[in-house]
Design a protein that fits this description.
The protein has about 550 residues and is α/β, with parallel strands linked by helices. The protein contains 18 helices and 19 strands. The protein folds into 4 domains: about 160 residues, Alpha-D-Glucose-1,6-Bisphosphate, Chain A, domain 3 (3-Layer(aba) Sandwich), CATH 3.40.120; about 110 residues, 3-Layer(aba) Sandwich (Alpha-D-Glucose-1,6-Bisphosphate, Chain A, domain 3), CATH 3.40.120; about 140 residues, Alpha-D-Glucose-1,6-Bisphosphate, Chain A, domain 3, CATH 3.40.120; about 80 residues, TATA-Binding Protein (2-Layer Sandwich). Helices cover about 40% and strands about 15% of the residues. The longest helix is centred in the middle third of the chain and has 18 residues. The structure holds 1,6-di-O-phosphono-alpha-D-glucopyranose (G16). One of its GO terms (molecular function) is phosphoacetylglucosamine mutase activity.
């Protein structure tokens, strides 16, 4: 059978409902929607994965089937590029074109047009690896993906159920195997071993204080964290982590992200209702595919205190800058921080004024932050929602690994810094790796959560989700990192008028790229004012986006 025929025949098994043609869009993190309308999209993403691998002469491409923080009935699919980063932005439109082809014949035509325009050699090998989270719809969607990979003669490896960052790690490992940039063993076990060895090295002269409760959002992070713990020193041993795993039921699909998980905690600014943690207990929550993490605790007055992505960024940036200084590498390593418009204004001021580090602000989406972070020697990027990591440039890695320490103190700092380069998953935000990173830093600094919180005071803030008739009406002005609306006409002026009434007021609205909604963020000098400002801006969004 010819290539075209194979693509067409398999496509006939995964037709697109007519009313959806033209509506699919590769968003913040790939395609994401109700799982029951995703079959044809996943099939077509599989076609693109093969094309991308062939275009890159057989380098391995990853496909992850997950809807991360979304509700259980949703699912999604995204592509991972050879070094473990998100799909190159210029290819997102090809994914969208394939997804919106309105018939099997049209799909073959779009596919062939891409082969031609992108100059893809169909005789080159195509190599794809994939995985999924614990959602019930995942195995059916893997079937759709497999049909595309078979039709296009790709070599495939199905890694079954993984966290999203584990798949990113594996993609980089496969593509760097046997090179001088080898990233690690190409296996799930290799991932745990790498993290565990780095953790032990980083904790050599210190140990964690107290215990940590980890809410796993009833997603894939639960079983994977339990697996990781088997590789770490036991809590009775020096340097061992005392972890209590909660919300790790992956057998009740409806419980995924329900009243728990990082998104619930960040958006509602409260612990999961099921939490039994006492005052001062260190807690954290992962999201549904374990690529985000936020920490929190109840203070002595039983008030909920959140330590979100901004806090992890400031903690990590200050620690790494300190290690660079202590090891005698300060001149060779510029540490920079990347944030989005959702970053709390107080964190931005703290990074610039207290830490003296550079800051860049990008639109939402790890793909944007990651890219910006690679411009620093050490780029620390975190979205306020807990999604982030640290990337070390090749020259920074070289400087760290070739540096000759001049004293035992320099040598200790250097050992810890080296350990961090392995402990941190540099391909993408990784809740498990970030969890260990935070534990290492808190142990080194001797910080409790309360002391971590005291480093600066957040401006009170509120995040609201507003449902509108068509979120695509809400577009932002290029170059403002999504802080200003371009359309609907008049909306931005109305928002600015309201913001001007509040002390330290700041607010913006932007369409979500993963949910059918517009998000509104507001901060002001008091909690009540932040709430009022968010409500007023949400009302403006409702007015302009009336169904
Ligand atoms: C994804 C992206 C994140 C983004 C989040 C929310 O996270 O990877 O970068 O912050 O969606 O995006 P939006 O506001 O556009 O809906 P996840 O954890 O859901 O994959």
């Amino acid at each position: 059978m010819s290539h075209d025929q194979a693509v067409k025949e398999a496509s006939a098994k995964h037709t697109t409902p007519a009313e959806l043609v033209g509506k699919f869009q590769y968003g913040t993190a790939g395609f994401r929607m109700k799982a029951n309308i995703l079959d044809s999209v996943v099939y077509r993403v599989g076609l693109l994965a093969s094309l991308r691998s062939r275009k890159l002469n057989g380098q391995t491409i990853g496909v992850m089937i997950t809807a991360s923080h979304n509700p259980p009935e949703d699912n999604g699919v995204k592509l991972v590029d050879p070094m473990g980063e998100m799909l190159e932005a210029s290819w997102e439109k090809y994914a969208t074109q394939l997804a919106n082809a309105d018939s099997d014949d049209h799909l073959v035509q779009v596919y062939n047009d891409l082969v031609k325009t992108l100059k893809v050699n169909l005789d080159a090998p195509a190599r794809v690896i994939f995985a999924r989270d614990t959602r019930a719809s995942g195995s059916r969607l893997v079937g759709c993906l497999n049909d595309a990979l078979t039709a296009t003669n790709a070599e495939v490896t199905d890694y079954k159920i993984l966290t999203t960052p584990q798949l990113h790690y594996l993609v980089r490992c496969v593509n760097t195997k046997g090179t001088q940039d080898e990233y690690g063993e190409v296996s799930e076990k290799g991932y745990y071993e790498k993290l565990a060895a780095a953790f032990k090295q980083a904790m050599e002269h210190t140990k964690p204080q107290g215990h940590l409760t980890v809410d796993c959002a009833n997603g894939v992070g639960g079983p994977k964290l339990r697996e990781l713990l088997k590789y770490l020193p036991s809590p009775d041993t020096d340097g061992g982590l005392d972890v209590k795993v909660v919300n790790d039921d992956v057998h009740k699909p409806e419980s995924l992200n329900h009243q728990c998980g990082a998104d619930f905690v960040k958006t509602n600014q409260r612990a999961p209702p099921s939490s039994k943690a006492g005052p001062g207990d260190r807690c954290c929550s992962l999201d549904g595919d374990a690529d985000r993490i936020v920490f929190y605790f109840q203070d002595e007055k039983n008030v909920f205190r959140l330590l979100d992505g901004d806090r992890i960024a400031t903690l990590a940036a200050s620690f790494i800058a300190e290690l660079a200084r202590q090891s005698g590498l300060m001149e060779k390593l510029t540490v920079g921080v990347v944030q989005t418009a959702y970053a709390n204004g107080a964190s931005t001021t703290y990074i610039q004024k207290n830490l003296g580090l550079q800051i860049v602000c990008t639109p939402t989406g790890v793909k944007h932050l990651h890219h910006a972070a690679t411009r620093f020697d050490v780029g620390v990027y975190f979205e306020a929602n807990g999604h982030g990591t640290v990337v070390f440039s090749p020259s920074a890695l070289k400087a760290i690994h070739t540096h000759q320490p001049q004293s035992p103190a320099q040598a200790d700092a250097l050992t810890t810094l080296m350990a961090l380069t392995d402990l941190i998953n540099q391909t993408v935000g990784d809740a498990l790796s970030d969890l260990l990173l935070v534990e290492v830093i808190l142990a080194h600094k001797g910080f409790s959560c309360a002391e971590w919180l005291q480093t600066y005071t957040d401006l009170p803030n509120r995040l609201v989700r507003v449902e509108v008739a068509d979120r695509n009406q809400f577009t932002t002005v290029e170059g403002t990192a999504e802080r200003q609306l371009a359309t609907p006409a008049g909306a931005q002026k109305d928002i600015e008028k309201v913001v001007a009434k509040y002390k330290d007021g700041r607010s913006f609205a932007r369409a979500s790229g993963t949910e059918d909604a517009v998000r509104v963020y507001a901060e002001a000098s008091t909690r009540a004012e932040a709430e009022d400002l968010a409500a007023a801006v949400a009302q403006i969004v409702r007015k302009y986006g009336a169904k």
